Amino acid sequence: GGGVIGEGASSLAGFLYSHIPKIGEMLGSRKIIAIFDNDKEGVDQFNKIAKEYSNSYSIIEIDGNNILKHKNYSVYILKLIAPTFRDKFVHKESKYCYLSTELLLHDDNIPISNRDIIPDTLPQKFSFKSDKKIDFANKIAPDSTDFSVFKKTIDLIRKIKSID
């Protein structure tokens, strides 16, 4: 029934491996679902947790997506799922991943001034300028923005929520 919005992959990762052991018993039947951007920083932190905290988190697969599941508590970690038109923005190697939450939107919703062009990429890829995120979010028009592109990620969250 509630949610928390975090700031930065490093802060989120720190919470997941430092604080979950402290608060895990308090969760009861509630779940924590942590979502990393599918960009370099998010993928690096996801992989770090998978590798360095394998005693606490195991990899499970849901609909072809690797999810980290805490071994003792209902804590799940996932990466954003790319809509079809952003498939090329993710890669098995984190250094080639550029998908942040803002880039789930269609290009016509992302002003050119908010794009950092990735050189030597065909088709052209870009990342979102991190210093413009709050201003960008405040200008999104909910009635005229297509949020259906979040569907794959939201469907995965719903599946996780339905797990007993």
What features would you describe in this structure?
The protein contains 4 helices and 8 strands; from the N terminus they run αββαββββββαα. The longest helix is centred in the first third of the chain and has 15 residues, at 9-23. It is of the alpha+beta class. A hairpin with a 2-residue loop joins strand 3 (57-62) and strand 4.
Protein topology:
Elements: H1 9-23, E1 32-36, E2 38-39, H2 40-52, E3 57-62, E4 65-70, E5 75-79, E6 98-99, E7 115-118, E8 125-128, H3 133-139, H4 151-162
Parallel strand pairs: 1-5
Antiparallel strand pairs: 2-6, 3-4, 4-5, 7-8
Brief summary of the model shown:
The protein is α+β, with helices and mostly antiparallel strands and 164 residues long. It is built from four helices and eight strands, in the order H-E-E-H-E-E-E-E-E-E-H-H. Helix 1 runs parallel beside helix 2.
Q: How large is the share of residues in beta strands? A: 15-25%
Distance between the termini: 17 Å
* Order of strands, widest sheet: 1-5-4-3
Task: Please describe the biggest sheet, giving its number of strands, its sense, and whether it closes into a barrel.
Answer: 4 strands, mixed
The percent of residues in helical segments reads: 25-40%
Radius of gyration over C-alpha positions, nearest whole angstrom: 16 Å
Residue-averaged pLDDT, rounded? 88
Q: SSE string, helix = H, strand = E?
A: HEEHEEEEEEHH
* DSSP E strands, number: 8
Overall outline = globular
Low-confidence stretches: none
How many distinct helices? 4
**Structural class, judged by helices and strands?**
alpha+beta
